[in-house]
Design goal:
homodimer, alpha/beta, Maf protein, globular
């Protein structure tokens, strides 16, 4: 977990972050806010569990599939726009045990990291039970954000 | 933690829930979505860590104080309105170790539970470190929601 490093990096630069979470259900926001002083750089999160919340609150067009890199990208862009943050991270996937399909089996998670105007997306296939998939997805999303922050800022 | 009981109760009645979280930072949403099948009744959350997110996204007037029962009530009403849910729960408080004042010391948490058109609020004073205050606040909020659901529905 890079939450302390991410926080220090953002605070030093006067930048802010938000999260848009589907399958992680608020876990990433919870991990970020576990760090004392995170209110200096964390503005908030939209947990868009229902498709209509992705569409209506974050302005996502899910026509490429709810679990897709396109949706993850639009969720990150949406939350950065709605909460007015410099950086954002987003997750959409199938934590299981239900909800899997042949095309999108349980453990499939798409994540996006937004840094300024740059957005990077990635698709993961995690093994394990629901709690394990959620934790791995949260770690992967924070890892991608940290990587992109170091690349771009 | 009443997350399973709350879920079963909501599913049986075809009702939905959302959370608006300040000091709990997404912990309540994370606890609710740890339960498999929670997408049947959990629509999402707004983690409004920054005051401007409380104001702009949830429509809260914080003039009674950011940590107040009035703010908690408006957060619950705001998230139920924005995410279109039947029930909602909200938290605003000081998890610490910083941020405390004489009037609002570390550990002060106001919670609200909305069930239909009925909103109940309560103020708690928790002891312990940051993580402990967050967990106690999340439990208290879910407990109040569960109590009100049983009273009203």
């Amino acid at each position: 977990m890079e939450t302390k490093e991410i926080g220090t990096f953002l605070r030093q630069r006067g930048l802010t972050v938000s999260t848009a979470e589907s399958c992680t259900g608020g876990m990433i926001a919870s991990m970020i806010t576990r760090v004392a002083g995170s209110s200096d750089y964390f503005k908030g999160a939209v947990v868009s569990y229902a498709i209509e919340v992705k569409e209506r609150v974050l302005g996502v067009d899910v026509s490429d599939g709810v679990v897709s890199e396109s949706t993850a990208r639009q969720m990150a862009e949406g939350v950065a726009r709605v909460l007015l943050t410099d950086c954002a991270v987003a997750t959409t996937g199938v934590a299981g045990p239900g909800g899997g399909t042949a095309e999108t089996p349980v453990g499939t998670v798409c994540v996006a990291a937004l840094v300024g105007t740059h957005v990077t997306t990635r698709t993961f296939h995690f093994e394990g039970d629901r709690e394990s998939v959620i934790l791995q997805a949260a770690d992967a999303a924070l890892g991608l954000l940290w990587e992109e922050m170091q690349n771009i800022l």
